[in-house]
Every structure is written in structure tokens, then in C-alpha cells.
Predict the 3D structure of the following.
Amino acid sequence: MAKILIAGLGKGMIDRNSEERDYRKADYKIKIEETGEYKVYRDEYFVTSVLEKHYDIDKTIYIGTAGSMWDKLYTHYCKKNGFSTESEEYEKYREELRNVTKNANKNTDVLNINSEKFNSIFENTEKKVQIIVTKYGMNKNEIFENFNKIIEIVNSLNKEDEIYLDITHSFRSNAMWIFLVMNYITEVIDKNIKIKMITYGMLEEMDDDETEKDLNGNPLKVAPIINLKSFYDLMKWIKGANAFKQYGNTYEFLDMIEDNKLKNTLEEFSNSMNMNYIGNIKENIGKINQMEKTIKTLDGPAKLLLPDILERFAQNFGEKQETFEILLDLAEWHYNQKRYSMSYVNIIEAIYTFTGKILEVEDINKGKEVLREWINRITEENKIKYKDLSEEEISNRIKLSEIFESSRVIRNNISHTLESRAEMQEIISKIPENIQKLREIFKTEYKKGEIHKSQDLKMQQTYTFLEKLAENGQFVEIGKVASNGIYDFLFEELGVQKSGENKNTVKNWLDNKKGNFEKELEKEQLSELMKLFLEVKNNSRSITAKEIVKKIRHLQNILTKKSFLEAIENVNLNDKGSSQIKQAPKINLNKEDRKILVFKEIFGEQEKSEVIKKYKIKRISKLSSEIAKEWKNLENDSNKEKNIKRFKDIIDRNIDSGDILLIEGEVGITFELVNWAKEKGIIAIYGVEKVTDNLLLKVEFYEY
């Protein structure tokens, strides 16, 4: 760490007797920060001399034009360092500098000042000196050239250097250079460099100093060296206020707030905004609102800037009660700040959170698979199935799915920094449109703090849930759930695969009440059950909720009756006239030497670790890079049937019944291979990316 002084150097004043330019000697006083007292420095030509002594400066950098007093500065530092001022070499270089500076004007070439020689003379002294010769800055090009020159020097600063800036001498425009340098140092250079002081020697306002006397015994006239660092602090406050307004970041001005409680609250708020932790955001906004009185009593810039900005945040996010509303507001806020990736993150989470409310899923992260199923259930192609929903509800659900899927793809691409290209403008322009549409969709299901129950309920295999449907009068859904539940139960008990073909076979068998099944159960019970299905499917309102509950319980009794289960055990559907029935393969779930074949192009370490842990894998086989690329590009392949056979052979050679097939690819071919693999008793799985609490992506695996 070094103390660096950066200062301007001007032309000085003309001495009437010698017609030489020079600064007149002056007495300066400067405040001692530790005690608050002033120290006087006598007979100094340069205010920089005072600053070098007072702050023990290690290196001084001067910025000036070809007309600055480089010859006087050269003489000053030669004497200060004990160099001879009588030598021929000294006199030759001083005269060279003098001749240039004496006749210099705005058109003088800066190269006429041999700055390299000047800098080399003092580069090995204990206290180093360096000069930068700039143009007068008469136009835009000169200003840019000057800036480049200064920045080259500034870039040589080291980590944690302390910078002292002085604007006393040189052109008034030089003060602008100093502030530019200051801003560049603090904003661009990543070296943790600190601005310690900005000084100005106020020669035009000399004060009487009673503690010091001149030769005649009169109070000494001294020029105060004032600290202008408050300008820098103001700039920090303004920059910090802008960062707070734009990004919710308070970090820029935290070190300028003395109230520790307020400081901690603002820091926590910024952390929660940057991590997008909604619970923390709500909590910290509440804390900020409670500290309204403290904020209003602040002094200085904080009093002017903070209340207004904090009030805006409170208005935007503080009054909402539902998390999905806050998430949409955050998405809109991030969009307005051009943080488009965060907009998409919050849009996705808003949909998940809202859907969680609809389905009463308490843990959103654990229930995302169920939520996705609900979100994407209704499509343009299958909407005719949902006659129980209004056209508006169907339209909203389709739109919700479209927004969710498009946003999810974009969010994933962002998270994975994929090299895929996209129409950026189109992606960005969709954000406000999607936010507005989501607000409309949410309002149709959310009124006066109550979430309306969805009529599109998740299929259940347990029948206690049907009672709840009956209580709500959801007759159509009872028929759907009960019917599908029976089939699921029978598929499992009979050991057959779930398929449309098998469903028809089971239905015919159920309707005809064949074999032991017919002997063990009363025909009237089954007839009553089938009648119930017809009634609820036809949306008959003649049947009461109480009657439905009674029949549902009767259904439960039938399906759990010992004689029914024993009869089921003895049923072989193939023996009853169906040659099409597909038996469910027997899978060894406790296989000790389980293998996995990875049918995808990329299989990362995180996926590998997770799949080994979940399925207790002993050996991993992957496609060769060449075949993996072929698999990836299958959608463009014209030899579909040939490749299906080839990939089946690859699977056959690598894994057996009870092993794992991780397969993700072109939908049609993947479907074919998954069904074929399952028939062989192979467990086919796919990966799903999930966002953890700390916004990291985690892969979880599920069976097809």
C-alpha cells in the first residue's frame, strides 16, 4: 500500500522584475484530523509540498500542459532530493523545459516536453515524482487523448493504494480531470483503492492566524487547505441512490450510515433482493417501514434521498399479501431495470407459487412435478375433454401453460449458459405482456383472499379423496377419478401394464363378471357401481352428495374385501379369451449389480452422483461421442426404423432386466424405446432440473 498524490500544475504568475513565471510563496494551514487542530506550513511555493509533508506521500503525480511550470517543478525536486543545481546536465535540461513552457500555447506539441527524462530522474528517489503532459483539451478529440494518457498512469496503481487528490493549481478544467480520475479509480479499477482526501489551497481567502506571527509581529496570513471529499461522498450517495432505485442495492452507501440497526436492515434487504428470497424481502420491507421515524431523522444526503426511494419499495412490495403477487411485481421491477433473466426467474416462480395455492401444495420445491402436471394438463388439442370448465377458464389454462413452458425454456437456457441463439428482442418484449396476462389469469381464481378450488383435479388411486369431491358437488370428477382409480387398482393387482388395450380387456372382463369374481360378489353391487359411474358422468344432479358418499364407501368395501382380492389373484385374463393382454414385466428392485446405460449426449458429475445414490448403481455405460451426437440429431434422421433397431441392440448389449436406462431425446423414438425397455423389465428414467432454495440447479430422476 502506498500513498499517492495526484495534482495539477499550472503556469504560475509572472514576476514583474524577472518576467519569469512562478508560484508565489505562501503560508498554509491544514487540519489535523485526529485532534481537530490546525498545523501551519511556512513559505511553500507548491501546495503539494505541504500535502507531501503532512500526509507522508510516497509518490506525487502531476498533470499539466506544455505551458505548465515544468522547469520550476524540476528545480524544486532537484533541491528537495539534494541533486546538484550547478551541473551542466541540470542546467541544460532545465533550460530545455523553460524554453518550451515560456513560449507554449494550445498548439504546442506535448512531446516537446521530455517527460520520460523527467520521470527517469526521480523514479529511484525515496519519494517518487511523475509527470503527465496533456493537451489543452480544446475539443472532444483532445479530451479523449488526454484521458487515455492519464488512465495509462492510473492503471499502474497497486492494490489498496490510498489516493490524495489536489485541485489547487492549473486550468479550472483540470479539476474535472481530477474528478474523472477519481471516478475511474473507484468504479473501474478493481484494486480496492481508497480516495482519502480531495484538497484545495484557498489562496484567495487567507485568514489571520493568531498563533503565528510574521516578522513584524502581526498575525500571519495563512491560506487554508480545505477538504473537498464531501463532493466525493455526495457523488457516492447519488450513485448509491441510483443503484438502490435500479437494483435494490444499498451497498454503495452502507459505510456512510451511522445507525447500525438501519445499516443492517438495509444490507439484509439488498441481500434478499439479490438472492430473490421472497420471504426475506417481505420481512425486511416490514422492518424498513417500522424504521420510518429513524430514516426521517437522518442528516445530510441520506435525509433527502433515502425516504423517497424506500417509500417506493414499500408501495411496490409491502402491501401485497400473496407471494405470487409479489413475485409478479418483482418480475415487472426487474424488467424495468433491464434485468431480464431475473424477470423470467420470478415469472416461473410466480406460476409455481400460484399453482401451489390452487392445489394446496405446501412445499413448492418438493411438489413441482405435480404442479407442472397441472399447469400443462390442458392444451389446445385436448381442451374438448374439459367440458366442465368455462371457455374463459380453458383459454386461461392454455395461456398459462404456454407462458410457463416458454419462460421455463428461456430460464433454463440462462441458467445453463447454453450456446443456443435466440431472438433477444422478441424474448424481452414478451415479458410485460406475459406479466399482465398472468395477473388477469390469477384474478380469475383468486378473489378476496380465497383460492377457488380447481375442478381439474389430480388423478388419485385412493378413494377417500372422492368423499371430498362429493362434498363440493363435483360429480363429473367423481366419475373420472373413481373409474381411473378402479383401473389403476386392477392393473396393479392383475400384474398388467397400463395401456389402452389392456384397459379395454379389463373393462370387458369387469362388465361380464367372469370366473371367481362373479361367484364371490353380488351382481347387484356391481350393477349399482356401474350405475353410479353413468350418473356422475352424465352430470346428473338428482343424486345427492350424501348418496354419493354412501356409494363411494360401498365401492371401497368391494375393492378391499378379502374375497374380492382372493378372486383377483386367481384371474388370468389370457385364459378368458384375450390374446392381446400385455403382462407387466417383473423387475428386480433389489438387484445388487445394477448397471445404467446413459442415452444422452451430456452426463454431468452432478447427475452421475445423484443417479448412483438413488439407484445404487455399480457400473455406468455411456454412448460413444459419435453415437451420442447421432442420438442428439435424430429429429433430422430419415432412417428412423433402422435406428430404433440399432439402438435396441445397443441397449440389449449393455443392460438387462432390473437395470436402469437414462434416456432423453427425440420424443417419438424415445417413446418407442422406453415402452420396449419397460417390456423387458428395464427401469427407464429421465432427469428434471429443479431450483434449490439457494437458486442452484439440482437434477432429480423419475421413471417414465
Summary: The two ends are 62 Å apart (CA to CA).
